[in-house]
Structure formats: structure tokens, C-alpha cells
Queue: 3 jobs
Job 1
Amino acid sequence: MSAPTAARSAARGPDGRGPGGVGATTPARGRGRSSAVRRAPWMLMAPFLVIFTLSFLLPIVYAVGQSFTRVERSGLFGEDGTTSGFGGLANYRQALEGTAFVESVGRVLLFGVVQVTVMIVLATVLALLLESASARWPGAFRTIYFLPYGIPGVIATILWSFLYVPGLSPVVDVAGLLGIDVDFLGPSTVLWSIANIVTWAYAGYNMLIIVAQLKSIPGDLYEAARVDGAGPLRIAWSLQLPLIRPALLLAIVFSIIGTLQLFAEPQVLQSVSTAISNEYTPNLAAYNSAFNNNDYGVAAAQSVLIALAAFVLSGLFLALTNRKDRS
């Protein structure tokens, strides 16, 4: 074999496929394998992304688009046809010019300030008591406190209405025998009757969030605190409360969002209380605009405003708490 032929044979390798034989195809196989690795997460996430897009993103996009759509009806009831087109901010202007909607926003803000504060304090106290060293049967009491959360809001409101309606409520009857006039469904008290239902339903839920954070505290910290002579109250104030701050922030943010979504409780109590109007809360106002007034554009605008309010309030709360931490 001549020298050039031997050189060409050595360059091809023993199997004639080039330098390294089979290994000559390794880069191409490596590129194919890395491409498959990159596609694998997207293929696994595809079902979730499809469901998330159809059930979450598309309704939001449609609602935002609907909020800028103005529908004009011909005839008294629209019997001569309807025309729709871009309405700009007309729906938002109409929603904000309605005093009832603005008053409903102020009403739920007052509700949130009082109810969320009371509920978070109650949930924190329950969690600290159940996780104290002297607590007996904590598992049973956790289950009992959490059970109201498992009852749908409509059913819970119906159950509580039996304690609010005069003639049915033993509380009202006993108070009447004592000469005390109690009206749980009056204009000045019905909001706090609703707050009582919400607190009863969600205090146990928030308690479990805090309990989960308490269980993550290392036992060595408790032992060190006891060695330093700290009692139960001192441990709760100086050790547990600072360490459960993330859970408290999470519970408060969830509660702020839930406050602006208040709907089922006032809607059910509306049948037994004349103090609750069709626009008593922002969600009720949006429901009334859509299904009683057939004004879906205004309802969409109100819904977008509610979502923006929840986003802004939650963001402001988190920003204020983070600012305090940095200072």
C-alpha cells in the first residue's frame, strides 16, 4: 500500500466511516439527544399549559376585550337588533360614575380592614395554642377548627341565617327575653354578620397555614430559649411570631384577595335582609350589571377594576412590609 493510500485509510478509520469509526456520528447523535432533552419539559408541561390557557388566560383576555366593547340596542328591549363596537373607556367611566359601585368598594375595604385583622389574630392565637408544649389533642382540635372551611359558603350562610332571622334565631329570642333588641340583618349590622360567617369559615384555614410554618421551626431554638429562661409567652412573642412572618403575609394576601371577591354570603342573605342591595359588594354589582341589566361591557369593566384593586392592594401590602424589613 502506498503512503497516500495508507494515509487515506487511516483517516477513514478501521470501518471506513472516518476518524474514530462509529464515534464519527457521536456529535450528531449528541445534538439530537440534547434537542430531545430540551423538548421534554415542554412536552410534559403541554397538557397543563393548554388547560391553563383555556381556563385562565383566555377568559381574562376576553373580559378585558369585552370591557372596551360598547353594545347599542335598538328598541325598548333590543328587539330591533344590537350593534357592538369599540367603546374606549366608556364602560369604565359608567362603572365609576355609579355611586353604588364606588360605595360597594368602600364597603368591602372597611370589611377587609376589620375582618381580616380579627381573623388573622384569631388564627395566629389558635395556631400558637395548638403548637404549645402543653396542648392536648392538637390533631383533633386542628380538625375541628378546619372543618368550617370544608362547608361551601352558600351552605354556611344558610346555616348562619337561622341564627340571624328573628323568629328562627334562638339568639334573638333569648336577647329579646332579656330586653335586648338585636338585629343581625339591619343596615348597620349586616356587614358584620357577613364578617362573622367569613371569619368562622376561614380562620381554621389560615390557622393551618400558620401551623405548617410553626412546625418548620427547629426544636433546638425552643431548647435554647428555655435554657435562657424564656416562658411560653416570651417564646411566642420573641421566637415564634418573627419566624412565622412569611405564613402571616401569605394568609393576609389571600384574605385581601378573598375580601374583594365577597359574593356568596351577601347574595344568600339578600333574601332575608332588605339592607343588602344588588350592588352591596363589587362582585354583586358586576353580577347585577351582567345578568339583571344585560350590560356585559360594564360588568366586564367592573370585574377588571376588582382584579386591579386586588392586585394593587396586595402589591402595596407586600411593598410596605418589605420596606419595613429593609429599614
Job 2
Amino acid sequence: MNSRTAVADAPPDTADLRRSTGRRLGWLLALTVGVVVMCAASIAFGTRDVSIGEIFSAFSGGTGVGEAVVATRIPRTVLGLLVGAALAMAGLTMQAVTRNPLADPGILGVSAGASLAVVTGIAFFGLSSSLGYMGFAVVGAAVAAVFVYTVGSLGRGGATPLKLALAGAATTAAFGSLSSAILLPRVDLLEVFRFWQIGGIGGATWDRVQIVLPVLAAGALVCILCSRGMNSLALGDDVATGLGEHVGRTRLIASAGAVVLVGAATAVAGPIAFVGLVIPHICRLLIGTDHRWLVPFSALGGAMLLVGADVVGRLVARPTEIEVGILTALIGAPFFIWIVRRQKVREL
């Protein structure tokens, strides 16, 4: 055995492992601080100026105009945290399950399927409760995910990243057109969902937060429990099977968690794209490819991105605001093009 082989076969240096863990903990602290800063900015800044005194007064039960404004921003901030974290974890899980660097709830048509289901439920079944919205959205997201994966698997090579991305784009366009066709003859519904279809968290209330929180928590728990299995899937199906991983079961359970996250998030905030694409890639650049770390990191990163985008949308167009779905698209579209050029999708 030569020296080069001996070095390759040597166990990882304990110091290297400590440095890796220390780096991850450092980035975890930085992301946590970033989330706290974005939350403070979301409460303090908006289309109307409020003073520091009004902010503290709102937390202590004040009833003035400024306090009322702050009181509406708090549930909006919490909902932004939940939706951003959910979309980022869902995107990460989809990328792991499909081994597709372009996977995202918006790109693969899952968000569009959830939106179409909600619009159909309201227009034809008199859907009116938030819980009903989430039920229809989860079913629609699941149907869209199965449809896109089936279409993307047709032909030679199976479900390649390029075929999945094209199938998702076509599905998104088709479902978006169907949603518009359902809404256009119904002026009352069109007015209600005009901004919802863009994607935003402006109508957040504590009731909506309380309803969506347990659903998102369940989906997040499934993704966390599947994180070790996602590491095995990244090695390929044959290697994962050799390591004792039940590939089909892991894919099914992890996909179910992602679908629940996307459906619930879409039901309360509309279809918000690219959060699940951008954040997982940034997190991999920072801490590596271990999904046991990537899942919580993606949750924090997605929460920070969505709340930050919402703050920017409130400030750049005062006294009106730009919906957060528009801003995430402006951020994510160039990132999508960069990934396509960098990863050489046809070779994946």
C-alpha cells in the first residue's frame, strides 16, 4: 500500500470534524441572527411609519393607531416565517427525492396544482374555511407532483432533471390557465384572488397562523425524520439499497412531507415561487450536503428570505406595496438560469 492510498483510507481527522461542526454552528448562529433582524424590521417598517414607543406599547396592550399597525404586522411576520421555512424545506426535499438540482414547488408545478385545487373548491364546491383551503391545496399539490413525475419519467433515461423541469413548466402554465379560466367569469372571486394568485402574506391573522401551524409542523417533522434517508438517496438507488435504505418508502414518505408543506403554505399565502430553489443551494454552499443539517438551515434561510422580501416589498413602493411573490420571482429567476448554466442540466 503506497502512502497516497494510506492517506485516502485513513479515518477523518477529529480536528477536521470539529472545524466542520464549528463552521456549521457559526453559520447557524448567523442565520438565527438574520432571522431575528428580519423579524424586527418587519415589525418596525412598512407602508406607515411607527415609532419605537408605539412598538413597545403594542406589545404591552396599547390601543392607538400606531399600536394597531404593529399588531397587524406581528402575525404577518410569523406567517412569513412559517411559509418561508415550509417552502425552503419542501424544495430541499424535492431536490433530494428526485436528485434534481432544479426541483422547486413552483418550477415542478406543485404550487400551481395546489392553487388550481383551491380555486376549483371555491368556485364549484363553495369552499370557505381555511381548513378546507388546506385540504384541497394538499390534494392538488399531491396530484400535480404525481402527474409531473409521471410525465417526466416517460421516454429514455427516466425522470431526468431537464425533463422534470420542462414537465413542471408545462404543468404550471396549464394549471395557471385553468385557474384563470375558472376565475374570469366570476368577478367576485377574481377580485378576492387577484393578489392571492401572485403570492403574499398581507392578509395574515392569528386565526390563519393557528390553523396552518400544526399542518406545517407535521410536514416539517416528516422531512426532518427523512433527512438521513435523503443522504442515502443522494448516493444513488443501488448504493442506498446496499446501505439498507428502503428507497421507495423513503421517497414516498419524504415526498408526502414536502407535498403537505407546499399545500398548506400555498393555501394561506398563494403560490410563491423560487424560495425552495434558491435557499437549499445557498445552504449547500455554506455547510455541505448533509441533509441532517440542511433541513434546519433551509428552514431558517427560507424564513429569512421571505420575511426580508416582504419588508422590501413594503418599502420600495410606499404608500402601496409589492407582493412578496413578485420579489421572490425577481430573485429566483436569475438564480435558476445560473444553476442551469452551472450544472449543465443535460448531463445530470
Job 3
Amino acid sequence: MNKLLLTLGVSALSPLALAKPVIVTSIKPVSMVVAAITGDKADIQQIVSSTASPHDFALRPSDLRKIVNADAVVWVGESLESFLEKPLENANKEESSIEWLALKGVKLHNFAEEHEEHEDHEEHEDHEDHEDHEDHEDHEDHEDHEDHEDHEDHEDHEDHEDHADHAGHAGHNHDGVDPHVWLSPDNARVLAEAVTMRLVYLDSDNASYYKGNLAKFVKGLAVTDAEIRKSLDKVKTVPYIVFHDGYTYFEEHYGLSHAGEVTVSPERKPGAKKVAELRHEIEEHNVQCVFSEPQFSPAIVKSLLDGSNVKTAPLDPLGGEIKLNQNAYFSFLKTLSGQFLRCLS
């Protein structure tokens, strides 16, 4: 009798005892990093499906319920997922969420700076080295005040670029920032550390488990990174064109030779003038491959390469086919590097 009561008591308590933290994630790459730390100790609920793009996503009522019921929401940031900003505010989840772009230590790339350098590289270099600021106020304004007349302002600008004080994320100002931070192994480590801290706070009973998973992730990341760097070294001088300008973190990390992009933003289709420019770039730079993306129709790339011998292959920046487990992020990096390698070899 007592044994039966004891069994019933355990059963009654078990749903509460086994309750896991609910971590809502925005996109697949975020889920990959989160899964590396949670293991089987938390419930991950992803909002944007693995076959969709966050660039043109619209929330459903079920997604709003996920946000309301979440213990924490982990997302990239408003410059990629603007559809999440208001719901997080309405659900009073801003403080408990983890915004990747806002984390201290994340290295961010700015689209505006890249395009200024691409359009007028020599003038940009001259401006950076110029010491006579008074004669170049107008030029400084055009270059977004990269060299400030006030030395203290210049120091503040450097701090902003280094993101040393970025954790506060005052004003949510990420205008011009490349949001594809998951393509940098270094940035993935920063998110993993932040997720670990949050899980330790939410589920202190499993603190040592989460911290152990972080240590494994950091070690595995170093090994994977070294393997990829070695394999891509043989093709890093081969020019190629990507579908949209979203691979800079990966390209700069591994020293690849990006020669251009079909479109700056995937929701913008290139016009006839852009297509003509791309065909000229393909010939001028001896481009070996033009990449498409599985989230978007490959018809644009096919028409661009019509009549040419240039290779084409898909690049999946979201890892849609990667199975979600603790090693998913490593598999994602290896798959992406393999896609580069096969088309550039």
C-alpha cells in the first residue's frame, strides 16, 4: 500500500520535476548553437522553419504563443528579424531574450563601410591616413566621421567599432550591420557562452552539465575551424560570386576571394543593368563559380550564366538540411565549407 502511494506520488510530481527550460530560437543556426549547450536538458522551439528565409518572414499566432511561453528567446537581431522586435516588447521578453548582435565580444561587419571601400578604395585609404582634419570636414562627413576632429570622440568611435560596451545595446541601433553573424566561428563561441550563462540561471541544478557542454563546444569548434581552414586554403584565391551579400564573416575568417554578389538583399531581384555588370565581372575576374541559395529560386543565377561555362552550386547559409543535435553547428560549418570547396576546386 505504502509502496503504491509512493509510486503515485512520484508520478504526480514528475511533470513538474521533469519540466525543462523552454528556449525559443529565431532561425536554424541559432538553434544549432543553443542545442550544443542544452543537450537534452531544455526544449528548443524554433520560429522560422529551416526551409524559409528570415528576410521575408511573417509571424503566425502559434509563433506569438511560443514567445509568450518562452523562458528565453534567442535571436540574431532586428536588422535580420525585425518581425520579432515588437512581439518581444509586447510579451515583456526583451530583458530575458538574448540578442546575438548585441552581445559583448561579437565582431560585427558593416555593409556601408564595405561598399564605401569597394566604390572608392584609394580615396578611403587616403582619408584614413590624413592628419589635417580641418581641411577635410566635408570628406569626413561623407565617410561617416571615421576620423573625428575631437580625439575623445575618436576614442568613443573605436570603442563602438570594437563593441566593447555593446552588451547594453542602447537604442537597438544596428543600421548597416551585416546580421549574418552565425557564419563566424568566433561569434558562435560568444553566443554559446551567453546561452550557457542564461541556462545556468534558469536551471541551476544542471549548471555543471551546461558548463561542460560549453567546454566541449569550444574545443570542438577549434578543431573544426582548423580543419576547414586547411581544406579551404587551396581555393582561397579562386574568385566566385554569391547569391546575396551575406557570407562576409565566413569569407573574411577563411580568406576567400569574393568577387561580387547577384543581389545585396535577397528580396531584391537584380535588374538588367546589374545582370550586365555581373556578366562583365565574371569575364574580368575569371569567376569560377556563381552560387545560388536553396531558399530562393535559382532561375536568376541560371539566366545570368546562360551560354557560359561558369559552374554553379547552392550555398545554404541557414543549414536547412542539418540535423539538430549537439554537433549541428560543426556539421553546418563543414557542409558550408564543402559547398565552397566543391565548386571552387
